[in-house]
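Q: what sequence does this backbone want?
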């Protein structure tokens, strides 16, 4: 896997525009949305926190993750498949799990860098808080990000062309953003919808991040859902993977 990871790192760094987009998009949104006066006031819906304290950076970190997992990542592997790169790799001892694992680790590193930039810029520009339970935040981020990237790898494993991959990914991404409370806060969702959100990986991810911002250790139920998602999507990605 080390050799594959090294090669993939060199290739993705050449496509610096994609990396820059994933990093800059959430940062620009944090800065822009953070200027709205009402969002800088204490809100009872968020336990007295301001929206910009934890909800905004958590949502932007999620947006960057889902953008990477469901548009960028599937496009890369679909391009390899379309150009015959994967077919040539199939003649080597490389196992699909190694290729998919290398992609997951590489994108996880980029996502971690993006999250760090969001937190730092949010703190310096709009006064967002830094997660008070930092170790818990790191655990939640790594587990949730890996689960969402593994979900993206399921799409990447079967998408036939570079054009179709982001289309499939978008069909999944926007419902997940909705369930995470991107447009309607989870607190005002109907009970049935909130239940679906609780088992969607993104709902527990956002809730667990907010808990760590407040200084609390993430709930075991949230960690369990993300762990189950990582195991399920990883297994599906390997099982469904097609070299061509």
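A:
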């Amino acid at each position: 896997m080390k050799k594959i990871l090294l090669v993939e790192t060199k290739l993705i760094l050449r496509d610096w525009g994609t990396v820059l987009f994933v990093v800059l998009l959430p940062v620009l949104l944090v800065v822009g949305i953070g200027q709205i006066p009402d969002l800088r006031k204490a809100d009872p819906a968020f336990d007295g926190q301001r929206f910009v304290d934890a909800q905004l950076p958590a949502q932007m970190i999620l947006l960057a993750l889902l953008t990477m997992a469901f548009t960028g990542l599937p496009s890369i592997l679909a391009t390899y498949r379309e150009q015959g790169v994967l077919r040539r790799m199939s003649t080597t001892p490389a196992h699909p799990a190694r290729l998919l694992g290398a992609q997951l680790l590489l994108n996880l590193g980029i996502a971690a860098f993006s999250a760090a930039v969001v937190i730092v810029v949010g703190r310096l520009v709009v006064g967002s808080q830094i997660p008070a339970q930092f170790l818990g935040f790191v655990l939640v981020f790594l587990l949730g990000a890996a689960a969402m990237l593994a979900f993206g790898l399921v799409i990447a494993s079967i998408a036939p062309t570079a054009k179709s991959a982001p289309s499939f990914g978008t069909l999944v991404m926007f419902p997940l953003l909705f369930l995470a409370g991107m447009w309607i806060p989870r607190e005002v969702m109907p009970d049935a919808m909130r239940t679906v959100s609780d088992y969607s990986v993104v709902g527990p991810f956002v809730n667990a991040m907010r808990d760590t911002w407040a200084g609390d250790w993430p709930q075991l139920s949230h960690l369990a859902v993300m762990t189950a998602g990582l195991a399920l999507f990883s297994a599906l990605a390997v099982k469904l993977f097609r070299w061509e």
